[in-house]
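We modelled the chain as a single entity of 338 amino acids. Its sequence is:
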Amino acid sequence: MKTVRTLATAVVAASALTPAAASADEVNVYSYRQPELIQPLMDAFQDETGITINVAFLKQGVVERLEAEGKRSPADLIMTVDISRLAGVVEAGLTQTVDSETLDANIPAEYRDPGDQWFGLTSRARIVYASKDRVADGEVTTYEDLADPKWKGRICTRSGTHSYTLGLVSAHLTHHDAASTKAWLEGVKANLARKPQGNDRAQVKAIWAGECDISIGNTYYMGKMLADEEQKEWADSVNVIFPTFEGSGTHVNLSGMALAKHAPNKENAIKLMEFLSSPKAQEIYASQNYEYPIAPGTKADDIVTSWGEFTADGVNLMDVAGHRADALKLVQEVDFDG
């Protein structure tokens, strides 16, 4: 079976990919998403085009790395799992515009940069996992409600400084002023059953274990837990709830891509971007990771659709990303993780 050429499992040495190694049949990807999660997509592209994909998995620091590499960077395509990271590489001047009718047709305007610097691929909702035994239907309705004292000692969550949490706080700032958001954070902190810790799956495990009644997490983790023999019991203990911001919708985030500023294999990279935006590729990606494809006419995996429908928050995702620094400041001011 053909496999993606993996160049690292953590931080790749700058010499691992070099412009000198560029050829007519290659494209180099810097990815925040682990290679095995995107391998089916890359295999499909390689089978269709004959172009080899080299993937460097970067757990963090892609901006710093691209800045250090400068014009000698081998990166062609940047793939991320968070709008703030997409915005970060754009704001750092590390991307370039892509004028593509294919991308415009496959990716709705609300899921791509107005300046054509980044493009979304799939979306996920930031939801509430609620105990089937201890949380009544309709008891959770809004994100604002999480600060209500009725939840005292009943909420679990991961660190306030994690990008997923900061994304939700940033979205709150998009709907409310800083004072209201700070008060909300203080209220949520007062309702925590334990100190913020672990990943999204760890919160569901805590609900299953009776340590808390609700937690905040991404939709796709439910699919991953249901597919895991050990974790399925945790997933079966909770319901998926789609809270909204008052008067708006459910907070969503993106996986996405951007063309690197100094891409040595630009033409191949754009071919890959167009392929990744196609309904075929998006359905592969979405089913592999239990996310929502965004190309018109595409369908989510049956497991994902079984959780029900929701209305996505209509705010501009770049506006949400623009509040990230202020969100981090507020999280630190309330000592959310303390």
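As a brief sanity check on the tokenised model: The first helix runs from residue 35 to 49. The first strand starts at residue 5 and ends at 8.
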